[in-house]
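[Automated response] Your request has been received and processed.

Submitted sequence:
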Amino acid sequence: MLVSGRLPCGEQIEASKIHSRLGAMNKSLILSVLLGVLGMSAFSPVQANTFTHQMSAGNSCNGNYLDISAKQQPVRLSALGLHLSPGSHRLKVYTKDGSYRGAELDAGLWQMHGEYQVESKGYGKLTRVALRELNIDPLETKGIMIVSTHTLFYSNADQVESYRENADLSVYAADAVCGEAFNDILHERVWNGALFYNEAEFCFPVATENALIPLCL
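Generated structure:
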């Protein structure tokens, strides 16, 4: 037993030692206990992941549409990897609830998620674009539209698959933006890029009253 901040033998407990011992403990266990105290339930940790769709290029214009669907666990999207032409790009990212299909040119169904300035890493390389965090609930689909001021590379649908999936999510991305957002659509153009998701050291899907949400440290 500890009394007045001293060990039984009388040794003073230093703050640095306490911090060191706490830091060595398993963070996931600490989080599970904390959630229990708060009356929340936690499931198995969600691992940090990268999902790459395509990088084969073959065609290009200003942007792409994609549908991201979470499977049994929530997905916390933190960044996009894009296949951009060299130089500086001004990007706009729009989102909508549900699939983009059928809503490509209807501005009233979309929300501006953010505007981003990036310097491209060039052809054949992913340029990472950190996003304002986007959460996708289990079994939910989010439509995404990415539009650049310059060239974004994609592939023709007769050369690559427009649908890919892993254990956490699926992506359908078969249409492109040419020009300004909501101005024109090109079908059979498959997005090149990657998704960076659940990137915090520990992410737990937490059951709230209405939904599962990712809680990350």
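Summary generated for your ticket: DSSP finds two helices and 15 strands in the chain. The radius of gyration is 22 Å.
If you did not submit this request, please reply to this message.
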